[in-house]
Amino acid sequence: MTLLVSDENRVRTLVLDRPEALNAFNEELYDALTDALLAAADDSSVAVVLLSGNGRAFSAGTDLLEMQQIATDPGFERGKHGFVGLVDALVDFPKPLLVAVNGLALGIGATILGFADLAFMSTSARLKCPFTSLGVAPEAASSYLFPALVGRQDAAWALLSAEWISAQEAREMGLVWRLCEPEDLLPEARRHAGLLAARPISSLVAVKHTMTEPHRAAIRAARERENAAFAELMGGPANLEALTAFAEDRQPDFTGLPAGW
Q: Label partner for 97 (CA 20 to 30 A): which of 47, 78, 247, 254?
C-alpha cells in the first residue's frame, strides 16, 4: 500500500504512504495517486480532495534509485500512468485540491503546489526544486505556474538554484497560502476542506473551471517545452553524474563534464 484513502463529510483525504522512502514517487505511487484523483473526479459524493504525506516528508519527489534504473535499463517496466499521467490528472482535476505539506518536499513534492487551489505548510517543512542539481529541466509546468504564483525572480531562484526554501520563505513568495504549526496542519487543512465541501459541488466545479480554463493552453505549451528539454537532458552527462553521486552518497561534481554540460 503506497496511498491511504479516507472519506469524511464529502472530503477525500489522500496520504502518500512510503515513509521509509520519504514518500518518493516510484511508478507504483504515481499510478496510485493518479487513479485516486481520477476516481475522486468521477465520484459524485466527493466535493474536495486533501493531499498530504505520512511521516517526516510530504514527498522527496521522484524515486532517484528507480530513476537511475529507468535511465540505464531500456527494459525497465513502466507504470500505467507514471509521472506524465499524474500531471495530466492534476491539470484536469475539476474539484478543489488542497495540499498540506507536512515535511520535506522536493521535485514533484514541490511543483505540485502549482496545481493546489489552497496550500498549507507546516512551519517545520521545507521544499526544494532540485532540477539543476540533477542535471535536468523543470517539470509539471512549473516553468509557467511558478512565475504566475510568485513572480519571475522568486520563481527563477526556486527553479534555478536547487536550494532549500523554508516554510516562511514559501509563504512570503506565495507558494503556500497558510503556515501551521506541525500539530495544527492537518486539522486546519481539514477545517478549510470541510468548509468548501459544504458548498454545492456543481458550484465548486464551475468556479474552478472558470479560474483554470484560461491557463490550460499555456500549461500545455509549458509542459511540451519542459518535456522536450527533460528528454534531451535525461541520461546525459550531467544527469548521469547526479544519479551516480546519489547512489554513491556523495555530492555531484559537474566541473569535469564536456563543454556545454
A: 78
Looking at domain 3-182+198-202, its CATH superfamily turns out to be: 2-enoyl-CoA Hydratase; Chain A, domain 1 (3.90.226.10)
CA torsion through residues 49, 55, 58, 62, sign: negative
Query: pTM above 0.85?
Result: yes
Q: Which of 2, 55, 8, 6 is nearest to 27 (CA)?
A: 2
Rounded Cα distance, 78 and 62, in Å: 13
- The pLDDT tens digits of the residues spanning 154-209 come to 999 999 999 999 999 999 999 999 999 999 999 999 999 999 999 999 999 999 99
* 216-233 helix and 142-150 helix, angle to the nearest 10 degrees: 130
| Amino acid, res. 72 | T
Cell (9 digits) for 204: 465548486
